[in-house]
């Protein structure tokens, strides 16, 4: 079985990082460094079914179906992840903990099986590293103390 595990430290309070990871208006801003998925119907509440919608690509319609399994603000978000075309049901987890004056994020995506799963974990791992190393820090830098985009931000949340 293949998996993705990425650990990143951010110089922002845990509540700010949590907001960037769970606010449906902010998520597309940092996922834009990958496939640009936006959550539809998402709420960090166990049992919530939602989907990520991104630009379709050859062989992929751009939709991933998910269900929130666990949410404990500001420390844990876990959800299932299944391609709209079927395939393995995998699991994504964001674990947050205070690290000095900032936040340590541990991202895990598990449950990939077989050769197809190995390929998918490698592809998604590359994309997630970019999102968490470039996309998320860019969004965090544009948030005010309350976790909202600053009025002078060049980033724009969808209305």
Features:
single chain; 159 residues; alpha+beta; Alpha-D-Glucose-1,6-Bisphosphate, Chain A, domain 4; 7-stranded antiparallel β-sheet; 7 strands; 35% strand
Descriptive account of the structure:
By secondary structure, this protein is of the alpha+beta class. The chain has a single domain, classed as START domain (Alpha-D-Glucose-1,6-Bisphosphate, Chain A, domain 4). The chain contains three helices and seven strands. Strands 1-7-6-5-4-3-2 form a seven-stranded antiparallel β-sheet. The mean pLDDT is 92.
> For the largest beta sheet, what order do the strands appear in spatially?
1-7-6-5-4-3-2
Number of strands: 7
Tally of helical runs:
3
CATH architecture descriptor: 2-Layer Sandwich
The overall pLDDT, averaged over residues, is 92
The CATH class is Alpha Beta
- Output the CATH homologous superfamily: START domain
Instruction: Please state roughly what percent of the residues sit in beta strands, choosing from under 5%, 5-15%, 15-25%, 25-35%, 35-45% or over 45%.
Output: 35-45%
Which class do the helix and strand fractions yield? alpha+beta
For the sheet with most strands, the description reads:
7 strands, antiparallel
H/E series: EHHEEEEEEH
End-to-end CA span: 40 Å
Estimated radius of gyration = 15 Å
What share of the residues lie within helices?
25-40%
* CATH-assigned fold name: Alpha-D-Glucose-1,6-Bisphosphate, Chain A, domain 4
Number of domain units: 1
Q: What would you call the shape?
A: globular
Runs in which pLDDT lies below 50 for 5 or more consecutive residues are: none
């Amino acid at each position: 079985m293949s998996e993705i595990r990425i650990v990143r430290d951010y110089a922002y309070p845990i509540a700010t990082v949590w907001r960037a990871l769970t606010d449906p208006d902010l998520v597309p801003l940092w996922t834009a460094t990958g496939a640009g998925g936006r959550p539809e119907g998402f709420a960090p509440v166990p049992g919530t079914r939602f989907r990520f919608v991104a630009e379709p690509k050859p062989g992929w319609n751009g939709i991933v179906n998910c269900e929130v399994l666990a949410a404990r603000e500001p420390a844990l978000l876990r959800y299932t992840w299944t391609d709209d075309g079927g395939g393995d049901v995998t699991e994504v987890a964001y674990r947050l903990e205070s690290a000095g004056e900032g936040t340590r994020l541990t991202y895990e995506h598990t449950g990939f099986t077989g050769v197809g799963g190995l390929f998918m974990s490698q592809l998604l791992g590359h994309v997630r590293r970019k999102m968490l190393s470039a996309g998320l820090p860019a969004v965090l830098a544009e948030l005010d103390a309350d976790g909202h985009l600053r009025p002078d931000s060049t980033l724009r949340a969808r209305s």
